[in-house]
Amino acid sequence: MAPQLDGFAVGVTADRRWEEQAELLQRRGITVVHGPAIRTLPLISDPRLLAATEELIAHPPDIVVANTAIGVRAWLSEVESHGRGDALVAALRQARIVARGPKAAGAVHAAGLDVAWRAPTETLAELRDRLLTGGVAGARVAFQRDGADGSEGGGLADELRDAGAEVVEIPVYRWQLPEDVRPALRLVEAAIEARLHAVTFTSGPAVRNLLAIAAAEQLDGALLAAFAGPVTAVCVGPVCAATARRHGIERTVTPSRARLGPMIRALGEELEARVEELQVDGRPVAVRGSAVVTPAGQVGLAAREVQLLRALAERPGVVVSKGELLARVWGPGTGDPHLVEVTVARLRRRLEPVGVAVATVPRRGYRLTGAPQGVAGSGGSGDTDDADDAEDADDVEDDLGAAGEAVAEVGCGAMVGAGPRASRERSP
């Protein structure tokens, strides 16, 4: 059985099948923050779809490009509702059908049609190369579009035309920005503030849209910095990953097969590798995302607390100066040592119940140590000035611990979690 990953939080940008993603992640104990960056708009009864279909029925194509499973199914279903399903299938049966991948091929087979070839890498680029190498001059090509507006799909149609083909485009659905971008914006803010450990993308347009939503609030630079740092971008396949790279997200996790299940497994492996196992005064301590786990129990930490703990945990028992912690956690140029004092006080309160203490070495700094037996949970770590600052902690940094309730509303979005502890995010 795969190890539990409670303590980690993942943002989901999909609109379709996002509940399935959430369920798969929750099984591992992961907290899910849903901020859809894309909306799939079906072109039901669109005159262009019906006109293109009638054109193909009257003049059957030589080649059919099946691009997406949802597109093929939606096209056939819509035409069937207008009483022209049998006529369309009869026209398509005369053509050589090529599919971008196994899901699109499966939708074609379900309609009782044969697939002559499918792209092993599941990319339109490979499908394009296959068609152009075989020659399409004079051929009539029916091209089922995805939801993009003039991006990769539009480029393929133009290249086929340039090679001499007559292309009939089949618009079945369109991808747009969500009507309400606030949940996606909250996801962006959570990533920037390191309250998320990963964000999943199941399409290239979702990548573009999330960055566009961030850019509208002048947060795109900070979001790209988060993806270059503590937040992992997880892409469902190579096309999505290529889109991420074109838009400045260089580091991605991509499964070997472009499927939801393999994507979740690849994400799980990435998070498992980020679990830190420590020894503090001979006691095992695991830092798992935003959670600290010891034989005495588990506690959730806020993002700054986790960063400070990691800075101390690199050298357990060694004194780390307040200035070094300030630079490591808040960045160079931050000059208020009170931030360190307050965060240490909060961290101390959380850690002592599970047998870990942050000790103060006067005029030198702080070190990580084991809590004395019988003292755990008492707050007695020997530092009065930091303890006094604890009352101010909530004014300096929101408590956004890693675990979540079954469903906790986050503004207009939703945080769905499976951890043992929870704290509600405050409205901005």
Describe this structure in words.
The protein is α/β, with parallel strands linked by helices and 428 residues long. The chain has helices spanning 18-26, 47-58, 69-81, 85-93, 102-110, 124-134, 152-162, 182-192, 204-216, 220-228, 238-246, 260-273, 303-313, 322-330, 338-351, 384-389, 393-396; strands at residues 9-12, 31-34, 39-42, 63-66, 96-99, 117-118, 140-144, 166-170, 173-176, 198-201, 232-235, 252-253, 276-280, 283-288, 291-294, 297-300, 356-361, 365-370, 407-410, 413-416. The protein has a seven-stranded mixed beta sheet with strand order 12-11-10-1-2-20-19, with helices on both faces. A five-stranded parallel beta sheet has the order 6-5-4-7-8, with helices on both faces. Strands 13-14-15-16 form a four-stranded antiparallel beta sheet, with helices on one face. Helix 9 (204-216) runs parallel beside helix 11 (238-246). It starts with 8 loop residues before the first strand and ends in a 12-residue tail after the last strand. The model is unreliable at 372-413 and 417-428 (pLDDT under 50).
